[in-house]
Amino acid sequence: MKADLHIHSNYSDGSEKIEDLFEKIKSSDVNIFALTDHDTIAGCDEMAQIVPNEYKFIKGVELTSICDKIKCHLLGYKIDTKNKELNELIQRGKILRAKKLETRINYLKDVWNIELNDEEKAWLYSRKSVVKTHVANVLVKRGLANNNLEAMEKYLDGCKTGNTRFLGEESVSAIKNAGGIVVWAHPLGGEGEEHLKKEEFIPKLESMLEFGIQGLECFYSRYNEEESRLLVECAKKYDLLISGGSDYHGKNKSNIEIGKLDCNNKSISAEFLTILNEF
């Protein structure tokens, strides 16, 4: 049995629709997986309707949060997608993201003299969880950059959008109120971030524990064996669940395939993921 508990669809910033994404999952060796789109649960029920019994599908979400001064992403697993508190939080996040999108659109016009047309803006505002990657997609489609990363670095990274993150306590509360399990995603650092060393990570972990996290994403597509070992040791020391995921985004994040749970592309079997015992 193989697991991947960190996968994105085009409901957030992944490139694939739910049906196409599941076809990709079927072609991999993964048979236990979670859909964890950024700040939206819109794809979870759709995925649940098409997954056959021989697969284990876990409804999830990845909430963009700030715990005290720690910017982080909190994964919620086994959530009730009808939960009122969670849905109200996500709706508020959608409004905040729309404001951030407006800021970026104005920035492109004012700084770069790039004015998006009505069709492009309509597509962006129609996203369930619009992010910088979506704006970058528009720029790439126009031929202004070769890929999303180049488009973001050149045209968007200089845009100051202010804080639109959920407070850590409200993210944790919403996930737990929805019957979910809270896991700190890529805790040593995510895509494009410098990874924390042990002496930098431990104080942050102790702070995060106060917010009520229940697990660590110990296996991650950008982490090496030493980093994963550190996280597993910390999870055991603090009695946290051990999780793992690829952070698959399809074409929107390079060199990551479903089931890739470390930078060497080793396949981590489900027996290493103690979080699965909770499902």
Number of DSSP strands?
Answer: 8
The gross shape turns out to be globular
Which residues form runs of ≥5 with pLDDT under 50? none
Biggest pleated-sheet summary: 8 strands, mixed
Q: Give the termini distance in whole angstroms.
A: 14 Å
CATH third-level topology of the largest domain = TIM Barrel
The CATH class assignment of the largest domain is Alpha Beta
Q: What is the CATH architecture descriptor of the largest domain? A: Alpha-Beta Barrel
The number of helical runs is: 9
Structural class: alpha/beta
CA radius of gyration: 18 Å
Q: What is the assigned CATH homologous superfamily of the largest domain?
A: Metal-dependent hydrolases
Mean pLDDT: 93
Count of folded domains: 2
- Following the backbone from N to C, one meets helices and strands in this order, namely EHEHEEHHHHEHEHEHE
Q: Per DSSP, what share of the residues sits in E-state strands of 2 or more residues?
A: 15-25%
The helix fraction, in percent, is 25-40%
